[in-house]
Known about the structure:
- By secondary structure, chain A is α+β, with helices and mostly antiparallel strands.
- Chain A has helices at residues 13-26, 36-39, 63-76, 128-135, 154-160, 167-170, 204-208, 242-254, 267-277, 297-313, 325-336, 338-345, 361-375, 403-420, 436-442, 445-458, 473-478; strands at 32-33, 56-58, 80-83, 100-103, 110-114, 119-122, 140-141, 177-183, 189-193, 217-224, 226-227, 231-239, 261-266, 287-295, 318-322, 348-351, 378-383, 392-396.
- Chain B is an alpha+beta fold.
- In chain B, β15 and β16 (285-289) form a beta hairpin.
- The longest helix of chain B has 14 residues, at 9-22.
Amino acid sequence: MKDAVFHGVYSSTMNHASALRQLRAALPEGAVLTDRHQLKPYETDGLTALRQMPWAVALPQTEAEVREVLRICAEHEVPLVPRGAGTGLSGGARPVSDGLVLGVSRLDRILEIDVENGVARVEPGVRNLAISEAASAYGLYYAPDPSSQIACSIGGNVAENSGGVHCLKYGLTVHNVLGLKVLTVEGDELQIGGKRLDSPGYDLLALMSGSEGMLAVITEITVRLLPIPPEKRVLLGAFRTVAAAAEAVNQVISEGLVPAGLEMMDRLAIEAAEDFVHAGYPREAEAILLCEVDGVTEEVDNDVDLVRRVFETLGAFDVRIATDPAEQANLWKGRKAAFPAVGRISPDYYCMDGTIPRYELARVLAEIASLATEFGLRVANVFHAGDGNLHPLILYDAGREGELAKAEALGGKILELCVEVGGTVTGEHGVGVEKLDQMCAQFSPEELAQFFGVKACFDPGQTLNPGKAIPTLARCSEVGGMHVHGGRLPYGNLERF
Amino acid sequence: MAGLDRDDSERLVEAVRDAYARNQPLAIVGSGSKSFLMPADDGARLLSVAEHAGVLEYRPDELVVTARAGTPLKDLQQLLSQHRQMLPFEPPLFGGGGTLGGALAAGLSGPGRPWRGSARDALLGVELINGRGERLRFGGKVLKNVAGYDLSRLQVGAFGTLGVLLAASVRVVPAPQAERTCLLDMPAAPALQTVRALCARPVPLTATCFAEGSLRLRFSGSEAAVLSASRDAGGELVDGDRYWQDLRDHRLPVMRPDVPLWRVSLPPGADPALQDGVVEWGGALRWLVAVDPGPGELAAGLGGWAARFGAGYARAVCDALPPPQMKYQRRLKRNFDPENLFNPGLVGTDAD
């Protein structure tokens, strides 16, 4: 992976020394880290292949302290990388060498559970699951549940517009956030939205969601809470071909059902999961589907019948329905452990995150299989089939000369395939530094310029999370092997250096 | 699908490029059904998107439809209903008109909004012409997509001030198997209490409306679920379809065009003092008849906002913001439309 960061322009030892003095004065004892050992945990997020030690880390505890950190960094032109829990998978929180990491983990207060209005007001460092735990006393919960929900922070969820298993029915983070308080690098506080359902002005709520910490720093979030569904069932369907499973996914949805979750695992993923957690999945299946339906009892009964019928019609040789929570947890166990399970059968794996139109599932999975053969690498598929969000796991051994590069090349091919069939290079993990090159395949120079223009509206000095999410035109011109997208020849008229 | 299927995009791009070269402001219009929300003619040249119409892609099992911006909502609804699907945000068809592009530009959503999401929630991607005459695509046609900033949803409610929408992909949902509407006669305060209590419970509620001493509740879903929910709710079963369409399209008697109607968006449980008029969206949207200065200050005090639903509406939505937000909004406007060509009356362009 190429280094996207164009720092160096900011470097100024004197500035940094002065900034450090002011940061120490503004924040409590122990809230500014500069010691190598203390910085070490911050050198990477969930994309551990990419590491970079930061210049320093600040861990403010209050919004006022965040404001101070922003002011000091702006005055000294020190780049700033916001960070939640550091579970992101695309390097969005990867530090820059002369920059400060602004960790919001200590801003972890649940400010209000407002039952009357069905919302929670929280600080950005609150863990995703902690919101639902706090709301459960009132029969309410926060719907988006990325797989890292035990650890990931809601601030990071907003920055990445995180998804999860239940998006098809309940939407992404952007659909479940009603209000944000953010601070810009210029020191402005914007109160965006609130406890109401809409607001005047451009939809900055949507703009901030998924902006990967590049436009402003979030200090408070108001999320929508939903009533906990009284009933839930989980179905497992085992299929002899991947194509039949893919067909079942489309059939369930064309029958008018929007399931809470609809997940697919292929043979390699099934075997890895079975070896690891013994969930009892049928090992002879080429693919299994896990379908969760929820709602009121009558609705759930209706939906379970429909899903079972579709699975059977499309040749499922084993259909199981889990009614009680223990059985359900057991069916989910293998899916939830799938990533670590794959980690056991290969020294390393590389997790991809493309989304495709659902009707292309069978074709794209077949194409991925043949690409895998071509590259001589194994690929396990375990993913959110209901919304077409693929997570091919490319198995490789970093210890073998050239294998990481091969895995990355295969990953790039897979993402370009996603764009080619009308999908996107990232469904829920973000671009970060990981997918900058693939962004060149998805967007034209004019579109990228528009993105840069929007960045400049909020951060003219380019000091907030610099070098992430949007590739420079120069970078795109250097990326070889891009295909022609939408009939447009990319970067044909761009200067080359 | 019946109706126009025509690609008028080249003419539109040319027109914007020409306007850019000559600094000629443009008033973007679709079917004109929401022109009553726009300021009076201000010398801008009319740019009609109505001839750029037709469905580009629709696969019912994909739950997504992609159509040109000028596609009439009526045609779109008809097509979807043939496949037992619908637009989740139930856009209003004022006077029976409206286009897909206009619905997104105005960002108005119908009675199901709290449960099925807004126009912005349903949007997956757009193609647009920016103020430099560049043809750009943002978002896509898949539900999960976090590549780049969300510049597609940014267009919703911007009243065309950031670009001329050419096409959009929106999420569709299956039409419910069954739907029932219950009518309960009660005063405003207990009606709001009833609605709030229902919203906190897992029931298949998809619309609420209180008006003139009557509370209507819509339940949608499977036959059995709807039957059970409507029995629990009590009251009288009534024919709902027509009523919810009348509410959506402002044909209820209390929403007469000749009265000063205010649209008030509030935290749903807000003060019962603002309950008169029409209360929908589980309490979060209220329509009030009020003389100037209207309920703006009161709404702000309750954590909401209000705008007169008439000729000043689009401008109020685009420009009546607190100063720090206005600063960034104007920068965005300048960035997309440096010459302030699109609907120039709506967003001020003063320097920061």
